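Bench log. Compound arrived from synthesis this morning; before running ITC I wanted a structural hypothesis for how iron/sulfur cluster sits in the protein. Inputs:
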Amino acid sequence: MPADDAPGTVHFGLDLTYACNYACPYCALPPVLKHRSVAEWTRAWERVHRKYGRCYIYMSGGEPSIYPGFYELIEAITPMHTIDLCTNLSWDVDRLIPATAQDRFKVSATFHPTQVPIEEFLPKAIRVRDYFPQRFPPRRSVYFVADPKQMGRMEEYSAMFERDGLVLVPLPLMVGNAPGNTEEENRSIEAVSPNKDTPDHKLEYQLRSLSPRGKLCRAGQRYAHIRGDGLVDRCTRYEDRQLGDFFSEDFELFSEPKACTQEWCPFESQWLVPERELAGPGARP
Ligand code: SF4
């Protein structure tokens, strides 16, 4: 069994529900759809486990803990796959933590200060931080939407998190499908983002100084994004559902990377084929 996030592991994003218990000013969710049952999801994930082995599921929404049967679903899927829950932390964390093993269950918390004060969010984040993915060792990430309505205290929040071994990761604002930050706001994002100067140029793709257009990407091959109705896109930037229906018996991923046709990649640029791989085996590291 590969480690939860080992090279070669297939990843999925999953919009489990479009319902949310918060009303953040920067979030425009699609209409809430009829939920698939725990039994339907469990059968589909069993089939995917037979085909691709243990996968890494980035479970999002909406707020996934609103899904009816949330705790049962986590308990049914974590023996097969690793779940990384993108959440506002408003649920009963003690019901799953520490009962669920850290290598099977991760918590990607997002802080929404228009809905919950830092004094309420931070103690809960500290309680569950051992479950936060270590994307920026030695610190664990807390996500934060870079909306000008809440960016005024972004640096202060970042310093508060840092004192407890956490790192604030700003996410670029989207307005509809378009970038929503000004150049000045981009500079504020750059000032605190741990993605600055990383080998995969994550921040450059987020802030649009690099475009993915024409580059080969493994989104669709080693990763795909499942919408709330079960139809699948190669990533969140595509809306053509070209990978078909996740609940279909013959659902499968692309057999090879394909060129990206988007101008902007705010979230999933880690799936671009690295230049050193394109250059071939003799390339310098
Ligand atoms: S580069 Fe980004 S936008 Fe393009 S296919 Fe890959 S993940 Fe999607």
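What the model suggests: The first helix runs from residue 38 to 52. Helices lie at 38-52, 70-77, 118-128, 148-151, 154-163, 183-192, 202-206, 275-278.
ITC booked for Thursday regardless.
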